[in-house]
Design a protein that fits this description.
single chain, alpha/beta, TIM Barrel, 2 domains, eight-stranded parallel beta sheet, three-stranded antiparallel beta sheet, 13 helices, 39% helix
């Protein structure tokens, strides 16, 4: 089997409502979908979700990166995934490369007749995902959390990091509104300074916070370690881990209790490596996401279902979109993600819809 073509589909999809974190606000999704074709009429879908803050990409830079990648992979055997990823490693942009990585794995699963969760290990059939409450005022944050629980969600992820006192008030208000059965995790997206993080998180401890993601700057590994050693809430790295080498470094420094694996940062091949590194070190993992269509979220769900070390999921980015061109793929019901047993990713895309999104 040989790769014959790489098709690139830029898309623009409005969000249901603004998505606000300590890193900024998003009103629409500017992503890129990728289709890799082969000479045996087997094709694979992938997705790039660029972020100026996290992957340092834009939609335009992703398209440029994929134009460089295309001549490097046409004619290659799509099963030689590690060799192909090594070959394109020099190209700028982690989500651009991730889109190729996902599509190659989709082809692999289709060719051998297995869903990717089985290829990765098939450790579970479903996983609870958190549903995110972005940064809003206290009243609206509490209302959003109540809606999540009323719709059957059991894991709430609250974005924090801009106003520490207000962050504590939000947690207090949510607990008063929904009780202590739903799990609450918080994500500062690097928004705090170390001393502020320690003080604020200590005030949140009484509200039974599941864990805190990336409380301080991604490069401040020592700061993460200090927070971990001074706060009772488990600390999870997110933006600090883009590569397997990052995972090794942060584990060696005893800086965190957990690691969030995002395919758009790592690619799928390196995500698998990071999961194995964490498994060897006894570090629990979560699979997270950006705002993505069901292509990216489905890939993340297969990873989460396949690897035993993955205990948590934050795979709700598709729920923020007003519509999705993906056919089938991940099913999210009452805060639980499942995938079908079709081979590969188990999805297709309405290409007529794609052409209207450019």
């Amino acid at each position: 089997m040989k790769i014959t073509n790489l098709l690139v589909y830029p898309i623009l999809i409005p969000l249901r409502k603004p998505f606000v974190t300590s890193l900024g606000s998003t009103y629409q999704y500017n992503g890129v979908l990728v289709k890799i074709e082969t000479d045996e009429n087997v094709f694979g879908w992938g997705e790039a979700a660029p972020s100026k803050n996290i992957t340092k990409e834009t939609q335009e830079s992703v398209i440029k990166s994929l134009s460089e990648i295309k001549p490097l992979i046409v004619g290659e055997n799509p099963f030689e995934i590690e060799s192909i990823m090594d070959k394109i490693n020099y190209v700028f942009g982690s989500s651009a490369k991730a889109s190729v990585d996902i599509a190659l794995h989709d082809i692999l699963g289709k060719k051998i007749g297995l869903p990717l969760k089985n290829v990765f290990g098939n450790s579970q059939n479903e996983i609870r995902t958190s549903i995110t409450v972005s940064i809003r005022d206290v009243k609206n944050a509490v209302e959003d959390a109540k809606k999540i629980v009323d719709n059957g969600g059991r894991n709430i992820k609250l974005k924090i990091g801009l106003a520490p006192d207000e962050d504590v008030e939000k947690i207090k208000g949510i607990r008063e509104a929904v009780g202590y059965e739903p799990r609450i995790r918080v994500d500062a997206n690097q928004g705090y300074r170390v001393e502020t993080a320690i003080k604020t998180l200590k005030e949140m401890e009484r509200y039974e916070i599941e864990f805190v993601e990336q409380p301080v700057n991604a490069k401040d590994i020592e700061g993460m370690r200090r927070i971990r050693n001074n706060v009772g809430i488990p600390v999870m790295a997110d933006e600090s881990v883009h590569t397997p080498e990052d995972a090794v470094n942060i584990i060696k420094n005893d800086a965190v209790d957990m690691i969030n694996i995002k395919i758009m940062k790592t690619g799928l091949s390196n995500a698998l490596k990071i999961a194995d590194i964490c498994s060897a070190a006894g570090i629990t993992c979560m699979v997270g996401c950006m705002i993505e269509t069901k292509i990216g979220i489905t890939a993340g769900t297969h990873l989460a279902l396949g690897k035993r070390i993955v205990r948590f999921a934050d795979l709700d980015g598709h729920l923020d979109l007003k519509f999705d061109p993906t056919i089938n793929g991940v099913l999210t019901e009452k805060g639980v993600n499942r995938v079908n047993d079709n081979p590969g990713l188990g999805l297709d895309v309405d290409e007529k819809v794609l052409k209207s999104l450019i």
